[in-house]
Amino acid sequence: MSGTSPALQPPADALTPVRHPDAPAPGEPLGSHYAECFGCGDGRPHGLRLQARAGEGVSVTAEFTVRPAHQGAPGLAHGGVLATALDETLGSLNWLLRTIAVTGRLETDFQRPVPVGTTLHLEAEVTAVSGRKIYSTATGRIGGPDGPVAVRADALFVEVKVEHFVEHGREEEIRAAMDDPDQVRRVRAFEVNP
Ligand SMILES: CCCCCCCC/C=C\CCCCCCCC(=O)SCCNC(=O)CCNC(=O)[C@H](O)C(C)(C)COP(=O)(O)OP(=O)(O)OC[C@H]1O[C@@H](n2cnc3c(N)ncnc32)[C@H](O)[C@@H]1OP(=O)(O)O
């Protein structure tokens, strides 16, 4: 069973997404947006360490290999971890738009169990943009990039200013991020390339 709620249907006057001229070339790795991110950072021992690459247009591909720390049932990936993989992949799309955005809504279909040791091959694309709202969709396949779909999601991301994180984040992590020149450079790339 799968389906998408009306909240994830773009309005009739939504625009076709436009890849930012400075977006990484197709095939180029996007890198982590934050080393401590549970989805893509290498600073979290049990994190997903998901690696995304730019695709054509406003699309990305990514891989995530399920480890024992990611189990829900014995030998199977936890659904919330799979949703995280979809969320992270969808979130990385915003780098191609040079827009900072957070997940507002994420609707997930779990179509096949995903065993520990499996590599999930993810693909995502932005389908429409309407004001601050970014509509996107993703699939995760097993057994190879052309294997059967195990999980899929539709999402709405909402554009925010960098102040969103400064205002809501815990002070010690925000301070550490601001003291990290690589982090500051990455955030500036968004601010100077509107
Ligand atoms: C140098 C130091 C700083 C470091 C900076 C680091 C930079 C890092 C770079 C990149 C980070 C990306 C991280 C990726 C990680 C993976 C993605 C995640 O997991 S993100 C975490 C989970 N998500 C949240 O925590 C959102 C929590 N929610 C909110 O903050 C708000 O609700 C927010 C921003 C989503 C919306 O709040 P509003 O007050 O700004 O705007 P309103 O007016 O409510 O919504 C705008 C439009 O969106 C629709 N909308 C909002 N939420 C919706 C929903 N759930 N379903 C449907 N529509 C929704 C509304 O109906 C409205 O639409 P109409 O303009 O009226 O047509």
Automatic annotation (TrEMBL):
The record's listing under Gene3D superfamilies reads: Hotdog Thioesterase (3.10.129.10)
Which EC class, in a word?
Answer: hydrolase
Q: Any idea where this protein resides?
A: Cell projection, Ruffle membrane; Cytoplasm; Membrane
Q: Which CDD domains match?
A: PaaI_thioesterase
Residue span, Thioesterase domain: 75-138
Q: Which UniProt keywords apply?
A: Apoptosis, Cell membrane, Cell projection, Cytoplasm, Fatty acid metabolism, Hydrolase, Lipid metabolism, Membrane, Transit peptide
Single GO MF descriptor: hydrolase activity
Sorted alphabetically, the Gene Ontology cellular component annotations on this record are: cytoplasm; membrane
Q: Which reaction does it catalyse?
A: decanoyl-CoA + H2O = decanoate + CoA + H(+); (9Z)-octadecenoyl-CoA + H2O = (9Z)-octadecenoate + CoA + H(+); hexadecanoyl-CoA + H2O = hexadecanoate + CoA + H(+); dodecanoyl-CoA + H2O = dodecanoate + CoA + H(+)
Give GO BP annotations, semicolon-separated.
Answer: fatty acid metabolic process
Membrane topology recorded in Swiss-Prot or TrEMBL: Peripheral membrane protein
Q: Does the keyword Cytoplasm apply?
A: yes
Q: Where does this chain mainly localize?
A: membrane
Q: What is any Pfam family matched here?
A: 4HBT
| Domain of life the protein comes from | Bacteria
Task: List every stretch annotated Disordered.
Answer: 1-30
| EC assignment | 3.1.2.2
Similarity section = Belongs to the THEM4/THEM5 thioesterase family.
Q: What name appears for this protein in its UniProt entry? A: Acyl-coenzyme A thioesterase THEM4
